[in-house]
Write a structure and sequence with these properties.
One of its GO terms (biological process) is mRNA splicing, via spliceosome. Keywords: ATP-binding, Helicase, Hydrolase, mRNA processing, mRNA splicing, Nucleotide-binding. Residues 11-176 form the Helicase ATP-binding domain. One of its GO terms (molecular function) is RNA helicase activity. This protein is of the alpha/beta class. Helix content is 38%, strand content 17%. The chain is built from 23 helices and 21 strands. Strands 4-3-5-2-6-7-1-8 form an eight-stranded mixed sheet, sandwiched between helices. Strands 9-16-13-10-12-11 form a six-stranded parallel sheet, with helices on both faces. The protein has a three-stranded antiparallel sheet with strand order 17-18-19, with no helix packed on it. The longest helix has 20 residues, at 508-527. The chain is globular and about 65 Å long. It binds cytidine-5'-diphosphate and magnesium ion. Cytidine-5'-diphosphate is lined by residues 1, 24, 26-33, 63-64, 67, 263, 285, 287. Magnesium ion binds at residues 30-31, 123-124.
Amino acid sequence: MPIFPFREDLLRAITQHQILVIEGETGSGKTTQIPQYLMEDVRLHSRRNEIGCTQPRRVAAMSVAARVAEETGVKLGNEVGYSIRFEDCTSERTVLKYMTDGMLLREFLTEPDLASYSVVIIDEAHERTLHTDILFGLIKDIARFRSDLKVLVASATLDTERFSCFFDDAPVFRIPGRRFPVDIFYTKAPEADYLEACVVSVLQIHVTQAPGDCLVFLTGQEEIEACCEMLQERCRRLGSKIAELVVLPIYANLPSDMQAKIFSPTPPGARKVVVATNIAETSLTIDGIIYVIDPGFCKQKSYNARTGMESLIVTPCSRASANQRAGRAGRVAAGKCFRLYTAWAFKHEMEETTIPEIQRTNLGNVVLLLKSLGINDLIHFDFMDPPPHETLVLALEQLYALGALNHLGELTKMGRRMAELPVDPMLSKMILASEQYKCSEEVLTIAAMLSVNNSIFYRPKDKVVHADNARMNFTVPGGDHLVLLNVYNQWVESGFSTQWCYENFIQFRSMRRARDVRDQLEGLMERIEVEVVSSLEDSAITAGYFYHTARLSKGGYKTVKHQQTVYVHPNSSLFEEQPGSFTNTLTPSLACNCQVIEIDSGWLLEVAPHYYKRRTRTMTLLHKLKSDVGGKETCESSFL
Ligand code: CDP
Ligand code: MG
């Protein structure tokens, strides 16, 4: 590994400097080796204190921890462990902890000077996730008075000068990479269907090219699963005419035993194809890759400051990303990268680098956290790249509307309690409001189900009709949150049965995770002294999500506050539903409007009187409209 010869130099540099930026090609050993060096080095590491290493992705934290535990011959969770949201795999004995950047951020709440750490490694710094960016500011600040704390900022070969500059000209330690040449091929014309193009390219490589494994970059779970299925199907049809093709997916929600498979060696005579999200761009290194297929897209969070809604959209990746992807082909030998776009598109349609997340996301969560840490002046926080002013203002406004901040922008008692829960402000408000409505049992379940929601219903390609019928059976009036509640409650009644999940096309693993999350949230509720009681009351959900409400008017749904058009996701149980006589309200969770419920507009005035004002005196005045869609009669209330 490229880092091996530099062990002593590196350790010396770390002894000499408090903050060190480490730059090295992906796969050079930064993540797996440096923490081990530190563990072994008595100069740097007193056994009392922990070494923390942050990762932007959950999967990376888990898989790297597992790898290092194996390399050091300890059981995962003992000396080497990991900590990600809702899952703590550490113990009293843990010396080296891999964790998501979000987890370290939350640790500031309980330990503002990170006293239990002797070394903090901010890894994958080039990813510039929101949490990593905030960590930069906070850690730079505490390093000033904790002279015993060592800070390492590790990054792929991108942007390291900027990190050095931000950390008061901290020295940069470069690990020289060896990289084999990678030939890059472009398509002559743009591809209409990049998924199909990927499948064809893989098969072409498999049939025409010399041995060597293949890595395909797609944007998310659905695409990856589709691609894997298509590949397997076509290989089945070709039968013994072609050599064995081992097709392996990797994405964040993939169960960890499946994730581990990508690292197992390819059987002789076969070829391995790993179909990955951009997690394989820099966070995970798979040995033996010679061919890379890059359609040039990634899923990116984008934030609409007008609607206050976040969405994940598939966009062209940056040139920096494309080059990282190509680089994955040249680690073990000369490689080839097939770009499924034109050379012109690379030059003219792609951005130079990816915009840091802090500039395209909702800041509600982070603002609440910073306020809880007593950082009131956010405008002057030491951001590496400051967020847009209007996003910051909107976050403050939203927290004010939720009752987390008072009119002076100071944290309220509600805000302090909200910050205790490791979920988005709207979700935490929903949970806390449930106390007042005496329905915390139900709301906890809904919150837990929302946190795993994208993978509850199982819909295999060959049993689509059965799966959809099974799903329909869970439909209850009111909307998706109540459907989730219904699913969970029935599962509880079945005695948490695996068989029941199987028969109802429900993913057992997701349910088990939901139960875990629910238990943990319940524990936190006790800590902040919220009584957990039961009844059925939708207002609590509205109390959290009133910000995201829409009503049906001519032609479709428009947000109540800003009149932006929004759509109900086809997966929603309300997708085809024509509304009854009340305002319909959407409470989108996560990125799209997958989860919506129907609400009574009166509730909005009840839960957020400061936010929604009564326009006319008559609250129940309804007038009829002819709807454009389907010609059915629908109603619109006119008072908000
Ligand atoms: O962090 P950096 O990109 O510099 O490298 P690393 O993640 O520490 O990986 C170093 C080496 O360990 C690579 O050759 C990986 O392929 C290997 N590795 C592995 O084989 N299995 C894992 N689960 C993790 C890393
Ligand atoms: Mg790494």
